[in-house]
């Protein structure tokens, strides 16, 4: 019912939703108000679960009939067994975790595939902002001042690719998204996408 | 039941049943964890709403330690509204236009279900302390017998707070194929040392009352009112929170201008607790209090499954909604979270919400809008999955 009222979802969520096969099991880590889970349930018949740190988000989800628990990506992923889900989604949350590498290890352990999206700190606007003004960037994608941001572990697309290599994680697909919503395949073109991509979406597997 | 009516059944004199009681001889005997097989188990229960033709819309509500089957109607002894009247009724969270709600008095209770107050069919006298020690699993077995008697193969939901929540967990662990959705509220997978400690205070208060008569007060025509009232007073404090007590009473005096330098109820909080104690003894049996608190103390779902709580739920098809309250220090959120962790470990379908409130453990009995929304949302979602038609309203 909810999905009928909002068939359009955020462009990065739509991108993730398009990567998920119908009739699969999905865990959305940091699911917010449940937009993606709701969409996946309505349009892809997905058996979805969520973890959300904010109580407002959790209560909104449960009140809407979505199976969501109050929890923390840094502490609560350890409970889940290996290969419990077809996909584990971490959308725009990695940069807010205390131990991103550990979280990524859990994601690829719990899910056959992990789908991770994050804001790219290597984007030209971020670089330009730092270069020209000498201050931490504040814009639509990164709306917080440095002193009250939940985002404590920013990375660039290149940083992320290097970490995946170090962890021995396979990058199955990678896309960048610019501020106009245009998507580009990253593949081996890390250098350009690291400048042009406002956000990135990676599909990972072990 | 001073003079039981003697209607002969299977050669034994059994008390006559009231309209809302059923004797589960066909489903019995009830095999208890302590090894005793209990014959002629009687369960008193109330229902609200209508069971649909497929018998798919039944919701079992499990009551707490001092609750009973009078869920959504005036209580026959106290004339007070039902203990969950806020939640149960047409158009309410447990919509009786949509669901068939069943609430049985638990085994060991004192409102018509087999318990220490009732007559032992073998002797014709009240059970008293000769009643076998029961467990939460035994309570659930008795309920399962009732549900079988009603011809219901699968409950749409089992819901309960506190001890009711423990029964919900036991239901899901023991009869996963007979439960579609389970909602343990303000509960725990085991009783902690603190929980046991408070119960022991209550039991000792009862047993210290000379009118307890070694448990045989019914024969002596007495009831340990003072001991039971003290037990209730101590327990009642654990159901609230310091913030709630402060807000309700502070250090305000009861109908007096100053302290009296005596031991009357100078403070409002004393007067309130004394009232709680004295009204409780009108409707509750002291031995029932001993037996039920014992059952709660013995509850440890993990221990019953090799020490690993998750093993209680392996491969469970049940959808869970675990709910806790921020100010509940009797069964704190950490206990609910342990249940959620166990359910996650077996990748069960689980929702978990912690409701922000100052009202302590008893919040599940009170008007908490956020709690109502979460429960309603979960039930609606589950009912849609189960294919139950929406209520009329």
Give keywords.
heterodimer, A: 206 residues, alpha/beta, Rossmann fold, eight-stranded mixed beta sheet, 9 helices, 23% strand, globular, disordered N terminus, B: 393 residues, Rna Polymerase Sigma Factor, Chain: A, 2 domains, two-stranded antiparallel sheet, 16 strands, 32% helix
Structure commentary:
The complex is a heterodimer of chains A (206) and B (393). With 206 residues, chain A is α/β, with parallel strands linked by helices. Chain A has a single domain (2-205), classed as 3-Layer(aba) Sandwich (Rossmann fold), CATH 3.40.50.150. Chain A has helices at 2-5, 11-19, 35-44, 55-63, 73-76, 100-110, 124-133, 157-167, 190-196, and strands at residues 25-29, 47-52, 68-70, 85-91, 111-119, 170-177, 183-185, 199-205. An eight-stranded mixed sheet of chain A has the order 3-2-1-4-5-8-6-7, with helices on both faces. Chain A is globular and about 50 Å long. Chain B has 393 residues and is of the alpha/beta class. Chain B folds into two domains: 7-191 and 300-386, Alpha/Beta hydrolase fold, catalytic domain (Rossmann fold, 3-Layer(aba) Sandwich); 195-294, Rna Polymerase Sigma Factor, Chain: A (Orthogonal Bundle). Helices cover 32% and strands 17% of the residues of chain B. Chain B has an eight-stranded mixed sheet with strand order 3-6-10-7-13-14-15-16, with helices on both faces. Chain B has a two-stranded antiparallel sheet with strand order 1-2. Chain B has a two-stranded antiparallel sheet with strand order 4-5. In chain B, a hairpin with a 5-residue loop joins strand 4 (30-31) and strand 5 (37-38). The termini of chain B are far apart. The model of chain B is unreliable at 1-11 (pLDDT under 50). At the A-B interface, helix 4 and strand 3 of A face strand 15, helix 8, strand 16 and helix 9 of B.
């Amino acid at each position: 019912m909810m999905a009928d009222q909002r068939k359009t979802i955020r462009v990065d969520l739509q991108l993730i939703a398009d990567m998920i096969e119908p009739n699969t099991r999905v865990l959305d880590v940091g699911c917010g108000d449940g937009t993606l889970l709701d969409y996946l349930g309505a349009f892809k018949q997905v058996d979805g679960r969520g973890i959300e740190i904010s109580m407002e988000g959790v209560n909104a989800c449960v009140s809407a009939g979505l199976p969501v628990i109050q929890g923390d990506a840094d502490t609560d992923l350890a409970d889940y067994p290996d290969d419990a889900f077809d996909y584990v989604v971490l959308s725009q949350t990695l940069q807010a975790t205390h131990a991103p590498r550990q979280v990524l290890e859990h994601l690829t352990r719990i899910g056959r595939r992990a789908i991770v999206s994050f804001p790219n700190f290597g984007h030209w606007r971020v670089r330009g902002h730092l270069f020209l003004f000498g201050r931490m960037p504040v814009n639509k994608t990164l709306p917080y001042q440095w002193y009250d941001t939940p985002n404590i572990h920013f990375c660039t697309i290149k940083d992320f690719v290097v970490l995946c290599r170090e962890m021995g994680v396979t990058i199955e697909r990678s896309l960048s998204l610019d501020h106009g919503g245009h998507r580009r395949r990253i593949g081996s073109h890390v250098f350009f996408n690291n400048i042009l991509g406002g956000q990135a979406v990676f599909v990972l597997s072990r | 039941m001073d003079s039981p009516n003697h209607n002969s059944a299977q050669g034994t004199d059994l008390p006559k049943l009231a309209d809302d009681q059923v004797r589960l001889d066909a489903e019995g005997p009830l095999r208890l964890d302590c090894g005793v097989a209990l014959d002629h188990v009687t369960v008193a229960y109330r229902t609200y709403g209508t069971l649909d033709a497929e018998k798919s819309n039944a919701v079992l509500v499990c009551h707490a330690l001092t609750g009973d089957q009078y869920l959504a109607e005036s209580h026959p002894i106290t004339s007070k509204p039902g203990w969950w009247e806020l939640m149960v009724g047409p158009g309410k969270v447990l919509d009786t236009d949509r669901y068939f709600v069943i609430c049985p008095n638990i085994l060991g209770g004192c409102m018509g279900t087999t318990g220490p107050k009732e007559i032992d069919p073998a002797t014709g006298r009240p059970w008293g302390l000769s009643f076998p020690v029961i467990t939460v699993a035994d309570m659930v077995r008795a309920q399962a017998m009732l549900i079988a008697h009603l011809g219901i193969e699968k409950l749409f939901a089992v819901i309960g707070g506190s001890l009711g929540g423990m029964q919900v967990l036991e239901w899901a662990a023991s009869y996963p194929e007979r439960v579609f959705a389970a909602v343990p509220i303000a509960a725990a997978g085991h009783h902690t040392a603190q929980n046991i400690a408070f119960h022991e205070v209550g039991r000792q208060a009862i047993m210290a009352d000379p009118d307890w008569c070694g448990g045989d007060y019914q024969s002596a025509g007495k009831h340990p009112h003072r001991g039971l009232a003290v037990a209730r007073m101590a327990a009642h404090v654990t159901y609230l929170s310091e913030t709630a007590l402060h807000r309700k009473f502070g250090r305000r005096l009861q109908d007096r201008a100053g302290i009296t330098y005596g031991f009357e109820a100078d403070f409002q909080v004393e007067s309130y607790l004394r009232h709680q104690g004295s009204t409780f003894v009108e409707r509750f049996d002291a031995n029932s209090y001993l037996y039920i608190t014992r059952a709660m103390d013995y509850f440890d779902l993990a221990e019953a499954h090799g020490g690993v709580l998750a093993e209680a739920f392996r491969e469970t098809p049940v959808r869970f909604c675990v709910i806790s309250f921020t100010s509940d220090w009797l069964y704190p959120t950490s206990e609910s979270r342990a249940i959620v962790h166990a359910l996650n470990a077996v990748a069960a379908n689980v929702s978990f919400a912690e409701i922000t409130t100052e009202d302590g453990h008893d919040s599940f009995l009170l008007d908490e809008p956020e709690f109502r929304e979460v429960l309603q949302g979960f039930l609606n979602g589950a009912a849609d999955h189960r294919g139950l038609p929406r209520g009329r309203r």
